[in-house]
Design a protein that fits this description.
mainly alpha
Length: 127
């Protein structure tokens, strides 16, 4: 197996890994968004119940306030857990991998030893 074939196999495997991580991250972001919307709606409902004219005992108002505050805290945790930066980094890494893969394909197996070593060192890490 030549150096170009080895690099091509390495870059293709890294490309598959990067694509799968991006898909997982997008799926997780959708799930978190749904949870966040559900939490926001629940908080609004709880606050509407507390503001209604229905007479509630002080203990119920306290419990509803605690639940509402907890839900808001969880919602902020989801919103401030910024996954978009991680997604952008993975997309940039994928673009870089695809560019190097195109370069290796265009060289038709005529890579120098130094080019091979540089590309191998650059991409032979865990994503």
């Amino acid at each position: 197996m030549s150096n170009s074939e080895k690099l091509k196999a390495l870059l293709e495997s890294k490309e598959l890994q990067c694509n799968s991580k991006i898909k997982k991250l997008k799926r997780n972001m959708k799930i978190i968004k749904c949870i966040s919307v559900t939490i926001s709606i629940s908080t609004i409902i709880i606050l509407a119940i507390m503001a209604s004219t229905v007479v509630l005992s002080p203990i119920v108002i306290s419990i509803l306030s605690i639940i509402s505050g907890t839900l808001i805290g969880i919602d902020f945790k989801f919103k401030f857990d910024n996954r978009t930066f991680e997604k952008i980094q993975l997309i940039n890494k994928l673009n870089e991998i695809q560019t190097k893969l195109e370069y290796v394909n265009s060289s038709n197996g005529n890579l120098t030893e130094q080019e091979y070593n540089n590309i191998f060192k650059e991409f032979n890490t865990v994503l």
